[in-house]
Amino acid sequence: MDSRFRGVFPPVVTALDADGNLDETSFERSINRMIDAGVNGLFVLGSSGEVAFSTDERRRQIIEAAVRIIDHRVPLLVGCIDTETKRVIEHARVAQALGADAIVATAPFYALGGQAEIERHFRLIHEAVDLPLFAYDIPVCVHTKLQADMLIRLGLDGVLTGVKDSSNDDVSFRFLVDSNKRAGHPLVLLTGQEVVVDGAYMAGADGSVPGLANVEASAYVRMWQAYENGDWSTVRKEQDFLADLMRIVLVPQGVQGYAAGVGAFKTAMALLGIFDTNQMPEPVLPLRGENVERIASVLKQAGLELKRNVEEVSASAHIHTL
């Protein structure tokens, strides 16, 4: 197991200005805030990082900015996510050239295959790019669940360094952790959950990749440190706080999916003064008005200090006319 990749690795939310361009000032503010909180690494161009909304040029901008800002202080994982193998390899070679410390890839999607094709997909990526490779298990987006026996085999063969599990399947993750232990722990196993990280740690996970850490990283760091020290009462205490805070994604009304999830993260970050706007990538609209108020209420109940008011955040992003 590669111990460089243990701990808290937030999937960095991409900051946009009101015109939809990369806002490097806000992006830097957010990254530095998480590093100052003690995170063990960062993951750009994941689902929270708008990889599916980003052109090749935007992906390059995000990687270049992250490499510059992080400046080797913590490891940088870069999502190289696309429909099929050759496209993933193209992204991975760019990430490697720009300074990524590891790459993250899902199973192929759109032209769906079986487990044999998925296994070959990861082997071909590994052959093409000399960087640690993480498999990203997110069946809600790619419509395929990665099988534990395949993942363990790829770990033992040196193809995969680890797995970022966003399957929302706690039972299968527990079985994967157990199988990984029996195999000698070839894989670093990171949970992509925000709300049941304590359970993943109890099973034996090697860390977490929580999107909510963009809003509040220090509690995830404290939970990780408590887990390392066997302090389970603190693990539970921090998870209880974070579970309440995660309700920011549940309170928006009249929106679904990305607009409610990452939209809530960006809105909370704007209210806390981390981002200058809560601008979303087209065609997703930014949250406004009562939805911003609902998120502000959750933040205040959690004891977080707001730096901007609801009206300022609601007016910060543009909704472009068709």
Automatic annotation (TrEMBL):
This is Dihydrodipicolinate synthetase family protein. Keywords: Lyase, Schiff base. Belongs to the DapA family. The keyword Lyase applies. Pyruvate binds at V209. The active site is at Y136 (proton donor/acceptor), K164 (schiff-base intermediate with substrate). The keyword Calcium does not apply. InterPro entries: Aldolase_TIM (IPR013785), DapA-like (IPR002220), Schiff_base-form_aldolases_AS (IPR020625). It comes from Alloscardovia omnicolens F0580. It holds the Pfam family DHDPS. One of its GO terms (cellular component) is cytosol. GO terms for biological process: N-acetylneuraminate catabolic process. PROSITE patterns: DHDPS_2 (PS00666). SMART domains: DHDPS. One of its GO terms (molecular function) is N-acetylneuraminate lyase activity.
